[in-house]
Amino acid sequence: MIVEREREIEKFVPVEYWQIRALVRTQELKNSRTQEEFWVELAKYKDKKAEIHKMEEAKKILEILEKGEYVVADIKKSERKTQPHPPFKTSTLQQASANVLGWSAKKTMSVAQKLYEQGDITYHRTDSFNLAPVAIEAVRKFVGDSYGANYLPAGPRIYKTAGKVVAQEAHEAVRPTHIEITPEKFTGQEMAVDEKKLYSLIWRRTIACQMAEAIFDDTKVVVSAGKCDLTANGIVVKFDGWKKLFVKDNEEFQSLPEMTVGEKLNKEKVESLQKFTQPAPRFNDASLIKELEKKGIGRPSTYAAIYRQDGGFFGRYCEWKTSLDGDAE
């Protein structure tokens, strides 16, 4: 897999393209509505999908946008619901700690081992999403008591593990042994910094998996200016649900102002950004674990060994990748 990815990267030829966007502002109305500005990005030019590959083309479109009258051409709204992720199994715990904490698989398993030995979490080498009924009951009680009944789904969420039954399936998903012990209840003397970070990740994922869905309003606005159609996408959180536990991790939501079709907008500025297509990235801890699992290679007990920095294959690969990145600077 790694060799194939490297070959793809070597063969890749970057293609130049230009992103064109405009900063627009709503006009003041008689009801004293506050003026609000937001970015719209070129989507169509002369009724065709905008694919700008040369500076000359970009300049021509910028001239049109500089002179154009900006009018709201279309507004589409839709409700979107997102379900919580299942509790952690070994591979997803390693992926999350790599993405959120920047840890290697080896470090994740080392810290998890300490938490397990201290009795803070269940066994951390598992292929299962299953939670014991008593654990589900405890989580649901915690959610209801801490956040209110509206944060609880009608019934328990049951997560099933896809694929064949293996030895690690006999274990539960990775979860705190005592749901009521929140990460904030640990002091520096009771738990090391790294242990608290991983415990917090596991605790939040476990609690969230039994919470209600999050509900969003998605809005897509099309703004016409001369021969150009520009678009903006906005998101409004109607109910945070399970996302309540991930406030710091949430993506930045762009909230669009209220508008009507046919409404004119003020242009603040237009700009073009030169960009180049990128090859598929080299594997890191999280992406390689995901690919290994997808292809059925390895088990929870072997992932960390594959990633060993002191002689493991991926460890040597990381050293080589780091040297390449250093040469590129």
UniProtKB/TrEMBL annotation:
Name this polypeptide is given: Topoisomerase protein
InterPro entries cross-referenced by the UniProt entry: Topo_IA, Topo_IA_AS, Topo_IA_cen, Topo_IA_cen_sub1, Topo_IA_cen_sub3, Topo_IA_core_domain, Topo_IA_DNA-bd_dom
Keywords for this protein: DNA-binding, Isomerase, Topoisomerase
Lineage: Bacteria, Candidatus Collieribacteriota
SUPFAM superfamilies recorded: Prokaryotic type I DNA topoisomerase
Organism: Candidatus Collierbacteria bacterium GW2011_GWA2_44_99
GO molecular function: DNA binding; DNA topoisomerase type I (single strand cut, ATP-independent) activity
GO biological process: DNA topological change
Domain of life of the organism encoding this protein: Bacteria
Keyword Glycosyltransferase found: no
Ranges of residues in domain Topo IA-type catalytic: 1-329
Pfam families in UniProt: Topoisom_bac (PF01131)
